[in-house]
Amino acid sequence: MSPIELASSHDDSAHERLIREYVEALSEREIDEMIGRAERKAETIAHGLLVSGHPIDSSIQSSLVRSAILRELNTRAG
Q1: pTM
Q2: Which of 1, 4, 15, 68 has the greatest CB tally within 10 Å of its CB?
Q3: How many whole angstroms separate alpha carbon 39 and alpha carbon 72?
Q4: Do 19 and 73 form a contact (C-beta atoms < 8 A)?
Q5: pLDDT in tens, 20-52
Q6: Cα 73 to Cα 67: distance, rounded to the nearest angstrom
């Protein structure tokens, strides 16, 4: 799921508009870098859980990626 899809919403609050405008202004390279960072964070968490004997399935890892992307967008966009 791309950050643009994540930021798109029927809820047209001021915050949602700010996020959407921020995402639309990002270059493809910046978006790819953001997704890469989010995937690495999720992989680190998944690896830690696997090592501790608590593996997670791919749907949970995907959810972690989405959360990391949204967290970064919220932080960057203000």
Answers
A1: 0.73
A2: 68
A3: 12
A4: yes
A5: 899 999 999 999 999 999 999 999 999 999 999
A6: 10
CA–CA distance, 78 with 19 (Å, rounded to integer): 8
> How far is 3 from 55, CA to CA, in rounded Å?
26
| CA 44/CA 48 separation, integer angstroms | 6
**SS3 track for the chain:** CCHHHHHCCCCCCHHHHHHHHHHHHCCHHHHHHHHHHHHHHHHHHHHHHHHCCCCCCHHHHHHHHHHHHHHHHHHHHC
d(CA 21, CA 60): 28
Q: C-alpha angle 71/68/8, rounded to 5°?
A: 65
Cα distance between residue 9 and residue 54, in whole Å = 34
